[in-house]
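Hey team,

Filing this mostly as a record. A colleague (T.K.) asked me to run one chain through the structure pipeline before their review meeting, and I want the input and output archived in the tracker in case anyone asks later how it was produced. No errors, nothing strange. Just documentation.

Input sequence:
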Amino acid sequence: MRRIPPSSSNLGPGGLDFSKSFFTPISGGDPPSPTKHHTKITVVGVGNVGMAVSQTILTQHLADELVLIGVNPEKLRGEMLDLQHAAAFLPHCKIHSSVDYDVTADSDLCIITAGVRQNPEETRLNLLQRNVDLFRKIVPPLAAYSPETIILVVSNPVDVLTYAAWKLSGFPANRVIGSGTNLDSSRFRFLIADHLDVNAHDVQAYIVGEHGDSSVALWSSISVGGVPILNFLKRRQIAYEKQTLENIHKEVVQSAYEVISLKGYTCWAIGYSVANLARTLLRDQRRIHPVSVLVEGVDGINGGEVFLSFPALLGRQGVLGIADVTLADEETEQLRECAKTLLEVQGMCDCEGDFEK
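Output structure:
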């Protein structure tokens, strides 16, 4: 196999670093001080989603240093070089790539997009177990090299894999988060805004529960411009059919399937969604996002440790709290059913494992 040279920012002959001799120091000046706010992000997995996440992070200047981790050294180097060659058009950021996890040391945020593909006639449970086994190779070294990092899981099925990452890392639950229904909620807000002909920024609406077909739309808490939608319709005695609401939720669930059927995969929307989460976490913006978090004891969800999407306050320490959302009885019951299903799935696969503290 052709030798892949290591990642390097040295451009001198033979890889020499001549940056110190290229500029003449100011006479009597102090030596340059190290940057006080240096943000380092690691992205594990350089498929379509991983590279969309990386590209969005770069264009939004969310990191001073970006590390790409994968299993194919040639593809890794190719993706790294492709991004590095755009340096003149992007905010300054050092970009590295490696199959070894030591380069991830002291990362502020570790984003996992890696996952195995489903084989023909393979059961979903077997696919899940193979992804959990893959996480055994990913999560422990991330936790060992960056013991203070936040882990953000994007790989599907995101809720169970976020639980697995939590168990494998040994981290407190506030520092292990799944991308969950952050994107689903964005699609939901877009569809409601489209129906009402308003800007999606003025729509407050959440999809919660499992990221997937059994997600729950919180119709009882939807507001536009601060006006609760269902209360408004009742107060004005405007008739509406429940089926109309269910059709909008169904359209949210089918959105990803439609994109996949048209282009083969999804990447850009999830890339922007993850960058949105990264910005909130790393810049301590204390915004509320519907993400997959440990919800044991929330709204009567009991029976075991389970990760589900719920509106959560996020900041530099990860999950700062879970929003106390008032749910309709039907929504509460649907959430509990989601939790029950995920607990059963977790029980059928081995998500436990050794980890380094």
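Quick notes for T.K.: The first strand starts at residue 40 and ends at 44. The chain has a mean pLDDT of 87.
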